[in-house]
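Problem: given the chain below (158 residues), write out its structure.
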Amino acid sequence: MAPPAGLPGRGRSGRSVLTGVLIGVGVAGFVDEVVFHQLLHWHHFYDRATSAAGLVSDGVFHAVSWTAVVVGLFLLADLHRRQATVPRRVWAGGLAGAGAFQLYDGLVQHKVFGLHQVRYGVELLPYDLAWNAGGAIALLAGLALLRGPARPLAPRAP
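Solution.
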């Protein structure tokens, strides 16, 4: 199948990856926010101030995460409408995006900037290792999927 007009073959694949990355980053942020911030109360996005500031930072983080998901879903719908979706690339982008988000959070926000830790009042090493290993596994899985062939969805019957 030839790519749609104005969209070269690699463009379909690249747009599918971008779509997946946005959804992956957004979903990873959402899971982090809901599980670790709201349900377990382990930390806020920003823990170096008052609880009120932490709650506001969580709200902003949550809004940005959901914005990434919504934009990614709009891009996915557009790819489907154009019959240009490359599912393997969407999954690759999603896993790579989620993994990169988690590694960035674990290494940069936790360790470099010190915005928060995974959990307080415990030995951090096991939590840091699990957090960053999960991110690395997702990132590597996404990169592995990118190495395989990119096949767009079969065209729909009229």
